[in-house]
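Let's practice the habit of predicting before peeking. Look at the sequence and jot down your guess about where helices and strands might fall. Then scroll down.
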Amino acid sequence: MKQRNTLSVVIPVLNEADAMALLLPQLAQQLHRCRLEWEIVVVDDGGTDALADVVHAFEHRHGHCNVQLLRLSRNFGKEAALSAGLAAARGEGVVCMDGDGQHPAAILPALIAQWQAGNDMVVATLASREHESPLLAWTKRCFYAFLQSSERFRIPPDAGDFRLLDRRVVNALLQLPERSRFMKGLFAWLGYRTATVKFEAAPRSAGRSKFRLRQLFGLATLGITAFSLRPLRMVSGAGALISLAAVAYGAYIAIETLVEGNHVSGWATLASGMMLLSGIQLLCLGVIAEYLGRIYEEAKQRPLYLLDEVTDHSVIGAGARGKQVHG
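Done guessing? Here is the structure:
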């Protein structure tokens, strides 16, 4: 088995300077224990805080010149920021983690041990969801249960972006062409030899979550339209059932007319039926429009993200000594 001696840690952040000031020293301590050559890739997803000052202070205070700081031209979203970090990472292994402190640096040695044992992907899964409200936890379980429309690959419901990827997994991921990315689904789609390590989510070290209900709903919609045809099949099934019900009701009316004659009644039934069918049609059009919108986004072929500035002090890779690039 090939040697696995270099590691990158990719952290996409949005206005998490206070939390990063606490996380970076913890990461450095754990990575030193693992006796690997390492780098930290921080991706600023269009933030407006003093993240650059925090990173530079960390390097100056601890004597580490092994950080890449990527600043995107605007807020492109966590999935795009994570993709930017993966593209910039140079390690034979790449750890993806959040910058809010809820992904504990203390389990990095366990992830690395599983990776060096020969696994291509090591997924950190939540041991419990006690930090979430019961309603949110139940909603997430329902979402992943609905999303599992294929038996060819499974998306673990208790796993997020916190994981370690071997270099060949990262290279395979970067080859995928889609612009609308649901990273948890892409990780599962890739396959490869996978191990899991359980962890307890820590409280946020600073700040507040940037994911509100609207963002969570948008991410769920993206995941469903990117990895499941079940909504379209449900639309087809609803159309078939309504058509059968209409045929049966038409036959009932015809028989009633032949047997009892023509009655001038049924206005309430007719009005209710028209409103029901109109609502179902609009709902079906909305489902189809979501898929059509994804096709539209892919057809434009715009870049997934744009880099505004790169400060590269990584010790991994040739020609990457103190380079600073402005977009």
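How did you do? The radius of gyration is 25 Å.
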